[in-house]
Structure formats: C-alpha cells, structure tokens
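Example with several molecule types.
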Amino acid sequence: METLLQNIINALQWGSFYALIALGYSLVYGVLLLINFAHGDVFMVGAYISFFVATWFLGSSQALVLTTGNLYTLVAVAASIMTIAADAILERLNERQSRQARGLKCLLVFAVAFAAFRYLLGEGSTGLGLSPALTFALTIPLTMIMTAAVGVTLERVAYKPLRRKGANRLYVVITALMCGLILEHGNLALFGAARKKFPDLLEKTVYTVGTVSVTNLKFMVIFAALAVFVLLQFVVTRTKMGMAMRASSWDKYAIPLMGIPLDTVIIFTFVLGSGMAGLAGMLFAISYPVLDAYMGALVGWKAFIAAVVGGIGDIRGAFVGGFILGFIEIGVAAFLPSSYRDLFAFSILLIIMAIKPTGLFGTARTTKI
Amino acid sequence: MKRLLGFSSLVFVLVLCAFLAPAQAKDDVIKIGFNLEITGDIPKVGEASKFAAEMLKEDINSKGGLEVGGKKYKVEFVYEDNEAKAESAVNAALKLIEQDKVVAIVGPNSSKQAVPAGGTCNDNETPMVSPWSTNPNTTKDRPWVFRAAFLDPFQAPVAANFAAKKFGAKKTAVIYDVSNDYSKGLAEDFKAYWEKKQGAGTVVAYESHGTKDQDFSAQLTKIVAAKPDFIFIPDNYNQVALIAKQAHDLGWKGPFMGSDAWGSAELMPLCGKDCVGQYFSTHYAAAGATGATKEFIDRYIKKYGYEPDDVAALTWDSVRLVLQAVKEAGKVSDKPKEERKLIRDALAKIPEFDGITGKMKFVGNGDPSKCAVIVQISEDGKFVFNESVCPE
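Resulting structure tokens for the full complex:
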C-alpha cells in the first residue's frame, strides 16, 4: 500500500515533465498543424540555459571552460538568437517601421547582446555570488525568457521561410527534425561531450511518513506543472489572444481576412510553448542534475507520443497524456520486471490509440480539398 | 544555379579525393588505431584514454621512436570515435583496419562496444587490446583479442565478499543497465555468486533500466521497500550519479557498492555528496600509489590538470603491451597484414607484464590474471585505497 502511494508520487513527478513538454508540441500543432520535432531539444537548451544562468548568479567556478574560439562562437550565436527574437517581436509590435530603422535596431540589439554575453561568459567573469534561493528565483524567469527567444528564432529562421513559400507541411516537419539535430550537435561542438552537473539550488528536505518519502523538489515540480496547466487553460480559453489561437487552428486562411495578424499569433504560441519548455528544462535539471546534449531527444519523443495520446492540439490532452505516460512507465517498472518498461508502456498507449485514434481529447477533422 | 552546381561538384570532387587518397605507407612508422568513446554516454572515458596515449606517444617519439631489430620506428596513433555505441564501434574498427591500415587497435573500453568490436577485429585478423572491458565475451574464442583488465567473474565475488564482510550484509539488491553488456553480465555474476554464498532469496530485489533512462524512482522504490543491507550498482558513472541521488530522495540511508565503471574522474563532479563514503572495486587506486604508477599519475596531473582514472592507467598499460609485442616480434613488416600477424603472435607469447595497474599474468586466452582493489570515496572526492584482492 505504501509502495503504491510512493509510486503515485513518483509518477506524478515524472508525468509532470512529460506534461510540460507535451504542451509545447500541442500548442504549436494546434495553431500551425506543425509537429515541432525540435521541441525536445528546445527543452534541452532550456536546461543548459538554466545551468549557465544559475552558475553565473551563484558565482561558482565550475561554470564553463571554453576555448577562445568557442567562447566567441557561443557569444555570437547567443547574441544572434536574441537579435532575431527581438526583431521578430518588435516587427509584430510595429509593422510600419522603415527598413533602415529596423536594421539599426537589430544592429543595436546585437551589439548590446554581444557585449553583454561576452562580459558574462568571458574569462574575467566570476559571477555574482548570490544565495542559492535568490539564484533560483532569478533563474526561472530568465531561463523562460531566453528559451522562448530560442523558440521564436527557430520559428523565424527555419519555419517561417518555408511557410511563406507555401511548402508542404511534411517539409516543415523534416526541417524541425533537422533543427533538433542541429541544436544537439551544436551543443556538442561548443561544450564538448562532458556532462554538466547542475548546482544544488534548493536545500533538499526529505519528508518521510511511514515508508513514503517525498522531497520538497517533487512537490515543487508537480505544483509547477499544475500551475502551468491552469495558466495556459486560462490563456487559451479566456483571453483574446487565446481566442485568436483557437481560431487559427480552425482555419488559418480565413484568419487574416478577419484582421487577425496570424504571425503575431504564431510568435505568441512559440513564446508560450518554448517558455514552458525552458521551465521544464530547469526543473528537470534540478531533479536530475546530470545534463548532456542528448537529454532532450528521448524525453521529447516520449512527450510527443504523450501529446498524441492525449489528443494533439488540446492542452488538456497534453496534460492528461503526459501524466498517463508517467503513470504507465512508473507502474510497469514498479509491478512488472523493469526491463520491459518501454515495451509495456508503449503497448498500452498503442491500445489507447487503436481505440481512439484522435487521442483522448482530440476530435476528428475533415480535410477540405 | 550554374554557379551552385559548379561549386557543389568541386566540393564533391574534393571530398572524393580525400576518401580515395591512398593511405601512404611510410615504412618507418608503426600505426596503431584507437577505438574510443570520445562522444556519447561516457566521453570522459575516451578522453582519459586519448590523453594517456598522447602522453606515451610523445615519450616514444621524443626519443626518436621505438627500436625494433636495430632500427627506430616512429609511432603514429589514429583516434576514431565510437560514440559509445556498439554499431559505431564496429564501424570504427573497420575504418581503422581497412582505411587507416593500422597494425593493432587499442580499445574500445566499455564492454558494450568491446564485445562487438572484438568480433570485427578477430574476423579481420587484427590484434585488439581492450584496456577496460571486463566482460568475458570480449576475448572469448577470439585469438586476436586481448585485454588489460580483470574479468567480471572475478570482480563479482570480490565485490560480494567485500560487502558481506564490511557491511555485515545478508541481503542485497541490484540495479543494472539491461542494455549494457558490462552491467548486465556483472549483475548476473554477482547475483549468482551471492545466492550461492548466502542462500536462495537473499537477492531481495533485482532491477534493471535502460541506458538513456533518467528516472529510476519506480525501481528504487521497490528496492528500498525490500530492505536490503546494501545496493549493488554495476553501472556507468553518469547513471550512478542519478541513482544514488534518487535513492537518497526515496529515503535510502544504507550503503552502495559499486564496480569499476564508477572509477571515472567525472564521477564526483556529477555525483557529489551522494557518493561520499561509498565503496567500489576497481583496477588501481591513484591515492597512495608508488613507483612507476606514481610517476605516471604525477605526469598526467601536470599535463592535463586532473588525476588520471583507471581507464587512463589501463590504456597506458595496453599501449605499452602492444609496443612490447611489436618489439619482441623482432622485425617490422611493411605489409599491414603480415605485421598484424607478427604482433598477435608476439602478444600471445608474453607470459607476464609489469603494468602500472599491477602485474598481469597471461594464461593464453588473452585475459590477464591480476589483482583488484577496493577504494572508498573520501569527503574531498578522492578514491582512497581500502584493500587489495588477488586471484587465488
């Protein structure tokens, strides 16, 4: 009985990660009908960003050892990402700016970002030496913002040009797969294959009741997943932007005719999805503090499957799917031989799909010709 | 479009040239290949191997080369990355054999790669020495394959006897990686030995996981609920870090017992205080070493800035073993095929080798008989010698 209770808590924590990542797949699919296969790697990038931000705030020496070449590549890439994301957002806010003004703004943002990153990541930088709790509080929003910038940049650089040219959705999906691989191997090239250890930010407390043990971290992860669910459900169902998102998923050709800026909706979607992936990456890094370049790939695929099982395109579906996958995986490992975990987990999901091919919350769509 | 076409065909031709360029056989060079885990799951292992090899190469070449039969030969090392994957290890071995025409291969280190790569080398009649692989299958029925490490059937009783004595343990639990030859083989050996010694049913939990898994909470919940006296974790260091932390999260307060895959310089940066005080069996203990071993450690620290782990030391021994064979063959053939045969025959004839990881006695099947040490992880992350266990 107590083992069961312990496993329910385990499953809630593990499922929370799937849920948070599945959400990003679902949001983007809902609006663009695009399966953003790079999302698992955006989650990985989120974990790495949180690692750099946290070590810098903490001022711990183990941050990173980079060769000069790699340092400047990293700084240039980071500054470019910030510039492209800033440009994409500024363009949405004011569509009538002249070319010169826009170019100037970009140049300015790039210069500032370059100088800032150079200062932050360079050799002389020792960090701030803040307390772990304060670091934690500051790392969350910064990680979310920067990961959102990565997501927006991906959209801008990889998906938008294809969309403009009216490319078939299949090509965009393939592009997304490539972006994921680029993120993984770019990470490998810059930071090497050695793993990173995420610093301990929160004083870990193990609460033991009988034989059931819970850490404050597990509570936090589960709470964060639920809070994100409530927030997103609110955004999508109760706000104007949410209505625009739902409308775009309904008919993206009629939407611009109604005076709704589709590009703004898309960027907003990527900001939301990638921001949540950043949050998930950071929480994951705190819970499983060994980071490597491939950490997002498998979790990402599984979360995608979770999103499909829940009914891709639906936020409730992503959450329920994520938790179902978490419960099945933990349950199989707990009550059957653990070697068969994935075999059983995915067989069960297959049965669910066979019974309800659109996923638990999905509705069948008819394609108009 | 035309320009693009011209450019891409130029690139194509260049790439083709690079591939087809004949591997130039310089007659006064001995070319040895390395099949290493440079990227992938255990990059620190590949790095340590490469660093140790580079150090040895500089030693030899700065003295003008290796003297065989009155003539000096420079050594050339070719490093190939096997991404810590079984299939890539086979490809890397084939590339070294067919394209680079190396006369012997050192590596792969981990049994997961060494078992399949050993088959490839044996089939292609190229001598291979694995520094770190402990799974019996690596050299089994393969006259061309050798190793510098002890075997799991020896390591498992060492770990079991030590834990039984140290922790006064009667019951144990095991968690291992089911997709890793090394981990699975060692877990099986350990379980069989423990049950033989302590009676059936004394392995109270026997759990597995996959290589890419990050969450072990379900398996560990089972283990903790079964109340063993200690947990045996024959796993790679990166997974050890996660398993130890999660076990503590689930309220585990007892000891862990580890195996030689723990002994990486990267274990403590990843695992931190969750691993302090734990014991594992390994090939050598850096703290408190003497003689040639100490000299190697000091030079390595000076050159690369951290203490060499057992892979570095074993690679050092493996390469020296190969070079000794080259020397003892007495002559160098400029045909790779003949030279490979010369090296293999010489390797098979070496009865005893005095390495920095201890004395190795070869009994004719490519496996050395050598001692194991048990180390404890100290407060400051050092692996401190606890006891030495030699084969009877």
